[in-house]
Structures are given as C-alpha cells and as structure tokens.
Amino acid sequence: MNKPLVFKTITDFQNYRAELKGSVGFVPTMGALHAGHASLIQKSRLENEFTVLSIFVNPTQFNDPKDLEKYPRTFEADYELAAQNGVSAIFYPEFADMYPDNYKYSVTENSYSKILCGATRPGHFDGVLSVVMKLFNIVRPNKAYFGEKDFQQLHLIQEMTKAFFMPLTVVPVQTLREESGLAMSSRNTRLSSEGKHKAALIYKTITEAKTADQAKDFLTDRGFKIDYLQDVDGRRFVAAFLEGVRLIDNVSIP
Ligand code: AMP
Fold it and tell me: What 3-state DSSP class applies to 122?
C-alpha cells in the first residue's frame, strides 16, 4: 500500500512541493473522509501525477462554535483512506500556521455568497474563499477538485480563480450518494440510524417535487427544519436540520 507523506508545517510542505516534477492535483478537505472524498481523490489520480490532500477544519468558515466543536476529527482513519486511494502527500496544518495575521486579511465576495448558505451563515463563504486561496498559494496545484454537493462553494471558488487570474483549473466532481440517495457527508455520522434513513427523503423530495415550495412543505411536515429550499439558476438547493444536524443537497432541475 502507498504511504502518503504527512506535512504539518507550511515550510516542510513547500520544500516537498519544490521537488515535485509533474502535475499536481489537489483535494482540499476538512477530514472525516468518506467515499465522496475518495471519488475526488480518484479523479485527481486519473488526471495528475501527484495528488495532494489537505485536512484542515477551518474555524473561519464556522459561524456556530458548537458546530465547529462537534465536527468529527478522525485523522487515523483519514490516513488509511488516503493511503488506499493513492494520495502522495497530506498537508495537515494548524490554525496559527494558516492564519499568521489572525484573519485580519480575508477574501470577500459580494453577491452569490450572500444567498442560500450565505444568508443564514454570515461570513461562511469569506472563510471558505480565504482558506482556499491560502491553500492554493501553498500547494500550487495544476488542478483542484471540488464536489458538486457543495455547489455554491464550487461555483464561488471557480469565480474566485477567474477574478484573481489564479493559474489552476477547478474541476467539479458529481455528488456521491448512499444507495438511499442521501448525499454522503461527514455530518451524516452524527445522525441516528433512523435519522439517516429519514434523511434520504431530502434528495427524493427535491428531485421529485414539482416546486420548491411543495418540497419545503413536504419535508417540514415530516419533521425537518428547513433553513432554505429554493430554485436558483436551474438548480434546486436545500439546507435542512434533522436531529440538530444541518444537511445540504442540490440537484439540477429540468
Ligand atoms: P468537506 O471535507 O466536507 O469540506 O469536503 C471536501 C470536499 O469534498 C468538498 O469539495 C466537497 O464538496 C466534497 N464532497 C463532500 N461530500 C461529497 C460527496 N458526497 N460527493 C462528492 N463530493 C463531496
């Protein structure tokens, strides 16, 4: 089995990066890896000589301190998944290294980041864009892989790379789902088995309902607390709480 190298400091990673000859694919994550992350890694492996994975639970994108505290941290299992999927190196930094300025500087987007997840999670996408820009500057990938499960995030990152002339390609990867249709997510581990079963209604409902409002009423009646359920530019987006866990999904609509 391939043994990925682990770099905890930026300098150590940069020394390694400077020696790499060949294309680098990059998969940024917050850890608690599952098959959805593995599908990003596999796509990167097909398209690049080296695949770098980052694991960093980024505090600046959490607006709820409890959500940050409860975020699963499973480095040993993550290392195994990375090894099994042929990751070359894991970048695993600490907050102080990533934010030497203590977040005085940030990247801001003033339009698309304010709707959907941005409407109820103020500052969330500034945190995401800031950390992704930092990671891109450190890793200097040729291609970076992001899941359509976080479609708004993917779109904002694509637009950021264009706005700042960043020399890399952002590659979208389709959402990997459980057999039930539930989008795989690190947060699913916080659901009871009954909750996991029920959560499959989210995908089924946004796919089958004629209108967003009908989907919203249907899920509300079944005990979901809807943050938003909206159609935007040919996609249907949802964020819903179940058992106190915030779940998101989106599908393209005909
Ligand atoms: P996260 O660790 O949740 O920040 O996710 C890291 C990357 O994996 C992001 O680009 C996500 O969109 C992507 N991802 C998470 N879940 C899935 C999934 N079920 N299918 C495809 N990509 C995913």
Answer: coil
Ligand 1 contacts CB of residue 146 (under 6 A) = yes
Strand partners, 29: 55
User: What does the pLDDT look like over 181-190, one tens digit per residue?
Assistant: 999 999 999 9
**Residue 57 Cα to ligand 1 middle (Å):** 13
197 is a catalytic site residue: no
Cβ of 185 closer than 6 Å to ligand 1, yes or no, is yes
What tokens appear for 7 in the block? 């770099």
Are 231 and 209 a contacting pair, CB within 8 Å?
no
Residue 242 host element (H or E):
strand 235-242
Whole-Å CA distances, 58 to 8, 193, 231: 15, 28, 28
Q: What is the pTM of this model?
A: 0.98
Cα 68 → chain centroid: 14
Asked if 55 and 31 count as a contact pair (C-beta separation under 8 A), the reply is: yes
- pLDDT tens per residue across span 106-137: 999 999 999 999 999 999 999 999 999 999 99
Nearest atom (ligand 1) to Cα of 184: 19
